[in-house]
């Protein structure tokens, strides 16, 4: 446990360095109104979560439009399915630049807005 910078927290609160227990995690999500997660999904948090982010899809221009991007994305999604806890769906996200959008849509991705809006730190 690491106590936090006391100046930045309201009185009575301490930041713990680490992960919540499985029951704490499941309860907190539910209490905060987030979608429910199973105990196996909660247990996977410290070792590799049910949350996956796909970053940097790129095929060299000399090799584009041959189905390589599609093959790589399908292989990544298969690996994610294989590695994720068996109960409950993995949460897979990405930020889609223009050229990648048709590929992502073809593979089942939908826009997260307006429910969830992608944000980056600038
Ligand atoms: C996005 C990117 C990764 C796609 O890679 P890719 O290998 O060209 O993708 P694919 O070949 O699987 O699919 C791309 C298009 O080629 C078409 N295609 C696939 N095989 C083909 C073939 N044999 N002949 C002709 N066209 C083909 C697909 O139908 C697809 O068309 P669509 O976009 O109209 O649906 C690639 O364009 C890229 O690196 N772009 C620059 C970087 C970038 O913007 N990345 C996205 C970041 S979010």
UniProtKB/TrEMBL annotation:
Pfam families: Acetyltransf_7
Gene Ontology MF: a single term: acyltransferase activity, transferring groups other than amino-acyl groups
Domain of life: Eukaryota
Phylogenetic classification of the source organism: Eukaryota, Fungi, Dikarya, Ascomycota, Pezizomycotina
GO biological process, one term: UDP-N-acetylglucosamine biosynthetic process
Name used for this protein in its record: N-acetyltransferase domain-containing protein
InterPro entries according to UniProt: Acyl_CoA_acyltransferase (IPR016181), GNAT_dom (IPR000182)
N-acetyltransferase domain sequence ranges: 1-122
């Amino acid at each position: 446990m690491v106590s936090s910078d006391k100046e930045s927290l309201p009185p009575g609160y301490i930041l713990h360095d680490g992960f919540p227990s499985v029951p704490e995690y499941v309860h907190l999500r539910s209490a905060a109104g987030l979608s429910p997660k199973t105990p196996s999904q909660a247990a996977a948090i410290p070792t590799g979560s049910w949350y996956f982010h796909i970053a940097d899809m790129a095929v060299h221009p000399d090799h584009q439009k041959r189905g390589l991007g599609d093959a790589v994305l399908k292989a990544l999604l298969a690996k994610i399915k294989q590695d994720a806890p068996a109960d409950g769906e993995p949460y897979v996200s990405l930020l889609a630049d223009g050229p990648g959008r048709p590929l992502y849509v073809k593979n089942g991705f939908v826009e997260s807005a307006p429910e969830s809006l992608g944000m980056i730190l600038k």
